[in-house]
Amino acid sequence: MIYLDNAATTKIQPAVWQAMQDIEQNVFYNSNTLYKGGIQAAEVVERARSILMKQLHANSGQLIFTNTATQANHLIMDHCLRRIQQQLVITAGDHNSIYLAAKERSNRGYSVATAPLLPDGRIDLDATAQLINEQTSLFMFSLVNSDIGTYQDAAAVVAMVRARNPRTHIHADAAQAFAKFDFDVTQLDLDSVTLCGHKIHGPKGVGALWVRAGINVEPPHGTLNHAAIMGLAIAAQNFHCPHINTIHQYLIQNLPDGCHVNGINNNPYITNIALPNVFGETVMNALSSQDIYVGLGSACAAHAKGNRTLAAMKLTPQQQKQVLRISLGMNNTIDDVKTFLSALQTVLQAIRSHNIL
Question: Which one-letter DSSP state was computed for residue 52?
Fold first, then answer.
């Protein structure tokens, strides 16, 4: 089996799995209890918090643990938007966890604006600046786009928003960026950041929300999954892909004739490939029958009729269906990519010969 859909989820690291099992067996207590076992469980949470804060280069602030990255995004939205007069600005390439929640806010009467993308997938900063006003309470953007992998220039985004309204809360969804890219939340002047475990070979069902000092967000209530929290921390600490650029370069330099890359492609982990007049779903299914797994875009929007990111980049509805998303992880090798490219070439030839779209 060759797995090339790591942006959807990843296989858990053995070291993470072992650590989580050890905790579940030996420090299984409720971290809210006050006896020795509960204190040990709370200490696990604090060790994980320290690791993650260091990973973010955050010397201060609040780190709230959540069940998912989606919950973290909703948490900051609920905190920042409490009055109907407040405006929310998102971007056209944001994950469904932001887009659908923003749509729900709009239905309730909130002012919601969507910042456009440039044809290469980057946020159109000039156009976005015109959307920010005195009522803009929250600006949300995905640090890495989950459909095409564009790694946004966070410093430029923050500078633009601050120039328009210094009081606007700036939130970065870093679910696809955390641990893969080294970014400093303090230096970037971000107000909050979403983290995720299962995109970096950590456990599913755990995420986190970092919020800068001075902003007090009410955490979700309930018993913390301290084994998963430590799993998130260990996954972040151990995430290491020194071979990723080599594999990515081989991929984009050896695409079959007629294929090309969509967007600026400044992120080796996610590559969106345009196919030559062939439906991506047809190709994906043919590859799946050979145990080669690829994606079409964000897994949370897999059943949508179109792709919002690609539409914002001015691709036609037909072109939006003629893509594959290849996303690499720690376990992938160059042989995986070679096998995929060979199979893709064979599938494309077979589809063309039968005139199947």
Answer: H
Q: Residue 307: CB partners within 8 Å, gap ≥ 6?
A: 147, 296, 297, 301, 315, 320, 323
Digit-coded pLDDT (tens) for 212-255: 999 999 999 999 999 999 999 999 999 999 999 999 999 999 99
CA–CA distance, 279 with 281 (Å, rounded to integer): 5
Residues paired with residue 195 on neighbouring β-strands, in sequence order: 208
**Fold of the domain built from segment(s) 14-238:** Aspartate Aminotransferase; domain 2 (3.40.640)
- Single-letter amino acid, residue 129: A
Domains 2-10+242-353 and 14-238 share a fold: no
Q: Measuring CA to CA, which residue among 341, 324, 335 is closest to residue 149? A: 324
Rounded to two decimals, the pTM is 0.95
Q: What is the CATH number of domain 2-10+242-353?
A: 3.90.1150.10
* Residue ranges per structural domain of the chain: 2-10+242-353, 14-238
pLDDT tens digits along 137-148: 999 999 999 999
